[in-house]
Structures are given as structure tokens and as C-alpha cells.
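go over this chain:
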Amino acid sequence: MEDYLQAITKEEINTLPLGRFEGDIHIITSKKEEEKAYYELEDETLLGFDTETRPSFKKGIRYPTSLVQLAGEKAVYLFRLTHIGFPERLQDLLSNPSITKVGVAIRDDLKDLKRISKFHPTNFEDLNKIADYLNLQNKGLRNLTAMFLGFRISKTNRVSPWHKNQLSDGQITYAATDAWASREVYLQMKYANLIA
């Protein structure tokens, strides 16, 4: 008998305590901040990954990616593409085969980043695909976080103005939590010997 949940209801999730990333968050808006981030991230073997994009409320209108979030062992890094573009070293990091990058529904995130630059993302794991493989009834980061980490994450800031010059505290926490939770769920799956 597996010792992890196969399914969870919305009602069950709503009874769980709210959780969020409590560690260091680095917002990358300059070359100097970039260099420090790469120095720390290039030594990681596993990164939580997510992106945020300015919401579009008109059919056919798409905006470029505003933010790339990478969660390492000790900190989360928020790369503000609206300020720094899509730097080559960030592309190299996402293309590095020796670093596993893990997230949820990452195909569209990567497709949007490829619209900015034709880079070659490598060694990405999608938690939704792993959930399918494990025959879990639920997918999505909120569900998987509840099932594997025992808390719920807020989605309040999901649709918000990610392109604005200043991010709110709520946006920063939301963005960091999503990348971090992906990494933590993946680690829990590994600890439970559900994935190699």
C-alpha cells in the first residue's frame, strides 16, 4: 500500500494550513545581481522552475514572459525579464544538462521563452507528467503541494500585473513559493521512492 495520497478534494485542501516560502528571495534586475545569482545557481543539481507573464484579457493578445523563477536549495531567484531581457547565461542555465529543472505544466512556459530566444532547454521534469505516471487523481501545483507537503499555497496573485516596474510583496511571495514548492514536491516524490 502506498503511503502517499492518490487523490485530494478541494474541501480537503481548504482545511490545510497556508504555506509559503520563508527563505531568501533575490530579485534580479541588474547585471551585478545576475552575476551573483549565476555564481550560486550553477552549483545546484536541482532547481524549481516557473515563469510569470502579464495577463491578457483579449483573445489573440500574448505578452512576453515577465519573470523567470528558479528555486535552489537555499534561496529563490526571480529574474525580471522586463528589466534585464533574457540573458545568455540564464539561457545556458536552463540548457545545462547537469541541472534538473522541475515545474508544473512547463511546456507553455518554455514555448513562451523560446519566442524570445531560440535556446535549447534541457533536463526539465514536469510534475504533471509524473503525476500521470503515478496514476494520481489530481494534478497542478496546488493539489500536488497539498498531497505531498501537507499545506496549501495561495493562488491570489496568479493573475496580476507582472510587467509593472515594482512587484508587490504578495507577488514576490507568490512567485517564490511556486518555484520552491515544485522543487519540494519533486524531492518528496524522490524520498518516497516514487521516482528514480
In short: Residues 10-191 form a domain with the Nucleotidyltransferase; domain 5 fold (CATH 3.30.420.10).
